[in-house]
Amino acid sequence: MAVIINEDKMLSIRSKYNRLSFCLNERSRRLWCASEAESYGYGGIKAVFLATGVAESTIIRGIKELSSPSKLSGDSIRHPGGGRKTLQNTDNNLLSDLEELVSPATCGSPESSLIWSSKSTRKLRDELVTKCHTISQKTVYNLLTSLDYSLQANRKTKEKADDPDRDAQFNYITTNVTLFHKKNDPVLSVDTKKKENIGEYKNNGREYCPKGKPVEVKGHDFVDKNLGKVAPYGVYDIGQNKGWVSVGISSDTAEFAVNAIRSWWYNMGNKLYHNSKRIMITADCGGSNGYRVRLWKIELQKLANEINKEIHVFHFPPGTSKWNKIEHKMFSYISQNWRGRPLISRETVVKLIAGTTTRKGLKIKAMLDNNIYKTGIKITKSRVAQECNILRHAFRGDWNYNILPNKQP
User: pTM of the full predicted structure?
Assistant: First the structure.
């Protein structure tokens, strides 16, 4: 039997709703309206809609929830999957465009996986809007947080002024990385991780152990004459997110550095890039792979002749070694993997490096390099000019140059 809803009952519904509406959320509102509509029987849905303004479809959904045996539990307001979809789900290119904007201005610490952006969220929002994305500054901030970026303060560490070509060099490197990736040619980031003492020495960080039974190590860090130190030299394939580490027991020389790249090629690179005619290497401006190190160029020339590939080298400006991708894409995770564990042997170092993985699919191969590399090798300019087939770029040819294979006899 139909129930006639008169004006007095409409006013009663409206009065009760107005008294409660300030404390109702989305879920409780639809359930209250559903319960009120059911109490009036036929015509109740229409009456509650006219009195409260809550859509009839919402009231019907509330009635279904009340009668459903599997009601929402706890503080849930919607069933899983309900509500407006996030921008990441509706805008397929949003995250890739944001990472592309941030990547050229990315830096990090070799001992931490934390990375940060030197562009403000407002500037990033404006640039994303020009790329036809509808997004707010707050959403940009939330996306950067989800991508493991954070806001960092300045730190006083530099002793001299930046090189005037610093920013131009970063953009030049980024442009060439993009071109190499489009051609499916390898782009390598190389560097030496800090030397590590081998033996029962304290390693920073903490690891789970039985309560009250920490691993006991030596009280002093004097180098063990028998075990010595190791120098891990890393080769990180930016496009494949894969790495190679040669664990050297001798000196960190240019010959050792190039031999690590050679090992990467024969153990990993040759399978992935057999048809490539060139290799791109990004390296610091100092150390064993510095742009002034003549032995570095001599050894790279030997490697280019050996594998018959062009080697394109790009050096980061002075004082910017932390911007090298290998630092926060590979070395930081190695440090995390062996935190709190004494590096008691060379084999332990190799196994811990090879066991390093990440959620994004990082894989690393490692091998002990038992060669003894001589230090103090003198290379003259005339020898470099005679043996090396170097093509320097028009922009900062001291930092950017190609080493071409010499014609084989």
Answer: 0.66
Beta-carbon contacts of 282 under 8 Å, excluding residues fewer than 6 positions away, are 173, 177, 187, 188, 189, 190, 314, 315, 316, 324, 325
Question: Is CATH 3.30.70.260 the classification given to domain 166-206+217-403?
Answer: no
Confidence of residue 409 (pLDDT cuts 50, 70, 90): very low
Reading the block at residue 400, the tokens are 């950017």
- Say if residues 234 and 330 touch (Cβ distance below 8 Å): yes
CA distance 282 to 266: 19
| Domain locations along the chain | 7-67, 87-146, 166-206+217-403
The pLDDT > 70 percentage for the chain reads 81
User: What is the rounded average pLDDT of the residues 135-149?
Assistant: 85
Q: How far is CA 71 from CA 28, 78, 165, in A?
A: 13, 10, 64
Helix (H, G, I), strand (E, B) or coil at 312: strand
Which residues, 6+ apart, have CB-to-CB distance to 244 below 8 Å? 234, 235, 260, 263, 264, 267, 268, 364, 365, 366, 367
367 is written with which tokens?
């091998």
- State the DSSP string of 59-108: HHHHHHHHH-SS---TT--S-TT-SPPPHHHH-TTHHHHHHHHHGGGEEE
Spell 88-108 as b/e; 16+ CB within 10 A means b.
Answer: eeebeebeebbeebbebebbb
For the chain, how far is it from start to end, CA to CA, in angstroms?
104
